[in-house]
Design goal:
Helices cover 32% and strands 13% of the residues. It is of the alpha+beta class.
Length: 197
């Protein structure tokens, strides 16, 4: 079987999955899991990619990331896998294979796609019955233990029609208000004013 071909382009955001060697549960060992997470964060901090979401499961890893302009997606994943393998061998000894070769990716196309994939990442440990709530899984972004990069600007929802807002304009309601709330978290639409004759 040949190598996977990856369709990538600078500035794109990706949902990536990569597996442990022969799908073995090597990351259920805390020391090993800690190394992988630290490498994910280290290469993000070095500016190789923006990290939006991740979850490290006992035998696989899911990421949502945006590679830096000068770094290909292949290089970003190689850094994570190669760096963590090297460090795991240094810390735990041995030379066993850690990662399965290659990875699978899909481009995140818009904010709805992003939300769907982010939910998948966050709820992966719950679906696997490892924890009851996403925030209880220590090796994932849902735990709030890790600093993440903001939602990719290019994926923000477009406003399909201009909003008529201003001093004399009515307060947006319905779909427009929901769109505005999605664009500006924490903004609550005001209820419509009551008119008295």
């Amino acid at each position: 079987m040949g190598r996977l071909t990856h369709r990538t382009s600078p500035g794109w955001t990706y949902f990536v999955t990569t597996k442990a060697w022969q799908s073995a549960s090597v990351f259920q060992v805390q020391e090993t899991a800690d190394v992988v997470v630290s490498k994910i964060l280290e290469y993000r901090d070095r500016g190789n990619y923006l990290l939006h979401e991740f979850v490290l499961m006992p035998n696989h890893l899911h990421l949502i990331l945006t590679p830096a302009e000068s770094v290909s997606l292949e290089k970003a994943i190689q850094l994570i896998k190669g760096g963590s393998s090297h460090e795991i061998h240094r810390v735990r000894g041995g030379k066993l294979q850690i990662w399965q070769p290659g990875f699978h990716e899909s481009r995140v196309t818009d904010w709805m796609d992003y939300k769907k994939k982010a939910d998948y990442v966050q709820f992966n440990p719950v679906v696997a019955k490892l924890v009851g709530r996403p925030q209880d899984w220590l090796y994932g972004s849902a735990s709030d233990n890790y600093q993440l990069d903001p939602f990719p600007q290019g994926l923000k929802p477009p406003i399909s029609e201009p909003l008529n807002v201003g001093a004399k304009a009515p307060t947006p309601t319905g779909a427009k208000a929901q769109t505005m709330s999605a664009l500006t978290p924490g903004l609550k639409p005001r209820p419509p004013k009551e008119h008295h004759p």
